[in-house]
Design a protein that fits this description.
Blueprint lengths: L8 H22 L9 H5 L11 H11 L8 H14 L2 H11 L9 H13 L21 H14 L2 H6 L4 H8 L7 H13 L15 H10 L8 H18 L14 H18 L58
Helix pairs in contact: 1-13, 4-7, 5-6, 6-7, 9-10, 11-13
Length: about 350
């Protein structure tokens, strides 16, 4: 097994965070009544799930956008709907568009109508884009950012991207083709590649390769002592390789996502979250970005049961299996510094 650089205290928190955050996910599935953790940082702030596909927006993408029951899985429609959703990455935007225009479809929907509805939303002071990550505007001659993004989607469709994606030979190939388009940088191209890989359009191993985003790079800088020669991607792949040993060595119970182990996209995601977590749990660790605050505080929205999860059918996960027993225990073992 390859060697990692010298580690810091945040590296230990990386694995502890992963185990406890996954346990919280299972606790919420089994009971709508909190609290779901005794960890003061996890109770005070919002953190995404350990497995990217289990997060709220990814769940909506998979269940409501990509795998609608009895709907056509034509390549063009799957690609169009996935990219149209992910450009804005906001459930409320998608639902408003479908409420105003009906089911969104490459064959049936006028993108001029989509543009008009988005203009109306902006006039009413509504948010159109998610704040999850920065969406640069492709310069395609339009006056509004969303209009340029719609023009970009049209260009992709005219270029035959759905067919190109369906015939791609690897996840890296998908990424490289997406990267050719204006306004799509390395991190965004990788995120889109992962999203498309959830769909029926393709079926590649998520271990194919990984691209670290700015948040993950900051998390890596907090987990390891500086001066190492490994790239962020190499470090992420080593985390995937070492996961079972690291959980076992710390006596942390981690059964994965209904048996599915961490993939590079998930370890990349955890680095991003540990970057935030360390701001409260380990404030002395400045990291590469030097940020000190966590913006999003956690607020319980009443006793509401989580919907049953849905994952790409090709993963063959048994989501009806018994929730791991360890996740039902809430102890103070992982209670760290108060934020």
């Amino acid at each position: 097994m390859s060697a990692l650089p010298a580690t810091t205290v945040v590296y230990d928190s990386y694995w502890e965070f992963a185990a406890e955050r996954l346990a919280m996910y299972y606790r919420r599935l089994s009971s709508h009544q909190g609290p779901w953790t005794s960890n003061p940082v996890l109770r005070a702030y919002r953190f995404t799930n350990v497995f990217r596909a289990s997060d709220r927006v990814s769940q909506y993408l998979i269940g409501e956008v990509q795998y609608e029951s009895s709907r056509s899985q034509e390549h063009a429609e799957v690609y169009f709907r996935t990219l149209l959703f992910k450009i804005f990455n906001r459930i409320e935007t998608w639902e408003y568009l479908e409420r105003m225009l009906g089911r969104l479809s490459w064959k049936e929907t006028s993108l001029q109508d989509v543009d008009d509805v988005l203009n109306e939303m902006l006039r009413d002071g509504r948010r159109v884009y998610s704040a999850a990550y920065i969406m640069p505007s492709p310069q395609l001659g339009k006056s509004r950012k969303h209009s340029n993004h719609l023009a970009l989607l049209v260009k992709m469709m005219v270029d035959g991207m759905p067919s190109k994606m369906a015939s791609a030979l690897s996840l890296r190939s998908v990424y490289e083709q997406l990267l050719q388009y204006p306004g799509i940088g390395p991190f965004l191209a990788f995120q889109y590649a992962i999203d498309l890989n959830y769909s029926s359009l393709m079926d590649f191993d998520e271990s194919d390769f990984v691209v670290a985003g700015p948040g993950a790079i900051d998390g890596i800088s907090k987990c390891f002592v500086g001066g190492y020669s490994l790239s962020p991607g190499q470090i992420i792949n080593l985390m995937v390789e070492r996961q079972h040993e690291e959980f076992s060595r710390r006596r942390l119970e981690f059964g994965g996502l209904f048996g599915r182990s961490l993939k590079p996209i998930d370890c990349q995601n955890i680095f991003c979250e540990i970057s935030k977590y360390a701001r409260a749990a380990h404030p002395e660790m400045a990291g590469a970005a030097g940020r000190t605050r966590i913006k999003q505080k956690y607020q319980e929205r009443g006793a509401k049961k989580m919907p049953s999860p849905m994952f790409p059918p090709k993963w063959k996960l048994n989501t009806q299996s018994v929730i791991p027993s360890y996740s039902k225990r809430i102890t103070s073992d992982f209670a760290l510094t108060e934020p």
